[in-house]
Amino acid sequence: MSVLDRAVPGAPCWVSLLTGDLSAAQDFYGEVMGWTFRSGRLGEDFRVALHDGRPVAGLGNVARRANVDLSGGAWWTCYFAVEDADATAARIRERGATVAVGPLTIGHGRAALAADPAGAVFGFWEGETLREWHVGHEGAPAWLELRTRNAFDAAIFYGGVFDWATGRPDRCEVRYEDDAVMVRFGGHTVACLRGGGVEAAPDPRIRPRWHVYFRVDDVEKAVEAALSAGGTVAAGPGDSRVGREATLRDPEGGLFTVTAGED
């Protein structure tokens, strides 16, 4: 049984696929990632993906649960832990961004979906989280990256919303490296904000977005499995700064990257 705890305020605490077909999503990610699934505490419209018995991510049929428009396809969403969902929603609106859904009471917590000023969708969660879930560690994504037009502007926005770089020991700090903003806590990078690589185009596949990387043993095998399961390849396979990787799209359009890079 997973142990629950309070995550570091402002740090990523979960990722979830927002899908309109929960059964099909389980079939695809089971084939490609080798995940198994179990019901969670949030009801029949949600599943928890497991790798070697460890929670990795959530899958949620939010189209039915929260009346979210998925006409543009499914997408992966990063959630950040907050102490007060209403106060966070207010800070987002004060900074000219949008709270699209919520905060809603889901299980024993409260969740919301928002979009930053550049249009990148993210979520926030008030409540208990899984203690063993940390970016870059077993049972969690390898990497979370905001791909946006201006990383500095994005850092100002998210820093104001989530209290980054306030000097408090219980909050995340930021570091600027190689024209990117690294968000760190306890000596570990928990997210990256990277600018300059997104075109100003209406295609949702290249709009600013939070992007999720999952670690696999063999990138080429993951690509083959994705194609066989009805997915497509958006980029790669190829070598990156951290190792072999490929960006894939599931049958509903959900975009993610598989990587064989080390921690």
UniProtKB/TrEMBL annotation:
Domain VOC: 11-127, 140-261
CDD domains: SgaA_N_like
Recorded superkingdom: Bacteria
Protein name from the UniProt record: VOC family protein
UniProt organism field: Streptomyces gamaensis
